[in-house]
Amino acid sequence: MAKIITIAHQKGGVGKSTIALNLALCFKDQLRVALVDSDLQGSLYHSREDFPDLTILAAEKVSDVKDMDFDLIIIDTPPYLSNRLTDFFLLSDFVLVPTKAGFFDVMAIRSTLALIRFAQAKKPTLKAGIALNMIKHRSGVTKDVSELLKNMGTPLLKTMVHDRVSITRSAITGGILSGPDQKAKEEFTSLAEEVVEYISA
Fold it and tell me: CobQ/CobB/MinD/ParA nucleotide binding domain: from which residue to which, for each copy (predicted)?
């Protein structure tokens, strides 16, 4: 049966789709991976021809994920799907919550974490983690935000993904792993490894 990772944050603009895509690409050489784009606008789904080696499925396939023949399924969620997030969480083995290091982003994360805790009460095996994403280099805010996040009851992953042009453009350049940015590759590889550790623990 497939392991299912859902990428969620009820605030837009925190890089969920970019993380979902590049994580899927990190795993695709070792596992049979599917990426499900649950956003009805389907920006990831419409880019599927650019990633012929990766299965990218449309929003209506979300309800079928438990029956799919894959090793790993990653579900990307849009910010407006709040009423369905709990359903996605209950399907999942792990929920990854990417956030920027801004105070407003951190305040906005509370409602997503509350939904995760609600799902965990129903499904105690569900695990979750917060990942700092789109981090500005040498930002003094990051340390303060990290301390805030560590007190929110959901683990903060050690890996931070920085704000890089290569990552922003990765959906149109074939993904981070096929590009020349070694630092970006290291960050996503580290993020993938850390997620695996959480799921396997």
Answer: 5-172
CA distance 181 to 46: 25
Q: Which pTM value belongs to this model?
A: 0.94
State pLDDT tens for residues 107-135: 889 999 999 999 999 999 999 999 999 99
Using left for φ > 0, alpha for ψ between -120 and 50, and beta otherwise, residue 53 falls in alpha
CB atoms within 10 A of CB 181: 18
Task: Give mean pLDDT, residues 170-186.
Answer: 93
**Can you tell me whether residue 136 is helix, strand or coil?**
coil
Dihedral, 1, 196, 154, 23 alpha carbons, nearest 10: -90
Stretch 145-153: mean pLDDT:
89
Within the chain, where are the H helices? Answer: 16-27, 82-91, 103-122, 141-150, 165-168, 182-200
* CB contact at 8 A, 105 and 16: no
Q: What is the dihedral of CA 142, 144, 145, 148, to 10 degrees?
A: 160
Under 8 Å CB-to-CB from 59, ≥6 apart: which residues?
36, 37, 38, 39, 40, 42, 45
Alpha-carbon distance of 89 to 71, in angstroms, equals 18
Which two tokens mark 123? 């499904």
With a CB cutoff of 8 Å and minimum separation 6, the contacts of 126 are: 89, 90, 92, 93, 94, 95, 116, 119, 120
What are the structure tokens assigned to 36, written together?
């499900």
